[in-house]
Design brief:
With 96 residues, the chain is of the alpha+beta class. It has three helices and four strands. Helix 1 packs antiparallel against helix 3. The mean pLDDT is 94.
């Protein structure tokens, strides 16, 4: 079993960055309380107010599946509906 990282890129609808940032910050706190979440960082590009990224690290596939099917992500999806016009997830292996 090896750790899994996700880089999530979100392109935000006009003017909604602060709202999405607030919703994602609350999601981060809930996610870090999940036993298999190792790290969850929110990244805001310095020169691009239309994008928000997250870097998420999970203990293994089971932890990622638990997160994907958990209540925090469901709540985040509900609260962020209509705020994101493009969404992309890159799954990465962690190279030590």
């Amino acid at each position: 079993m090896s750790k899994i990282a996700l880089i999530v890129t979100m392109e935000i609808t006009s003017g909604d960055i602060e709202r999405l940032l607030s919703i994602t910050t609350a999601h981060k706190a809930r996610s870090l309380a999940e036993p298999g979440t190792v790290q969850f960082e929110i990244l805001r590009p310095s020169e691009d107010n239309a994008r928000l990224l997250t870097c998420e690290v999970y203990r293994d596939d089971a932890a990622l599946e638990q997160h994907k099917n958990g209540s925090s992500l469901a709540q985040w999806r509900e609260e962020s509906a209509g705020l994101i016009k493009n969404f992309h997830v890159t799954r990465c292996a962690i190279v030590d």
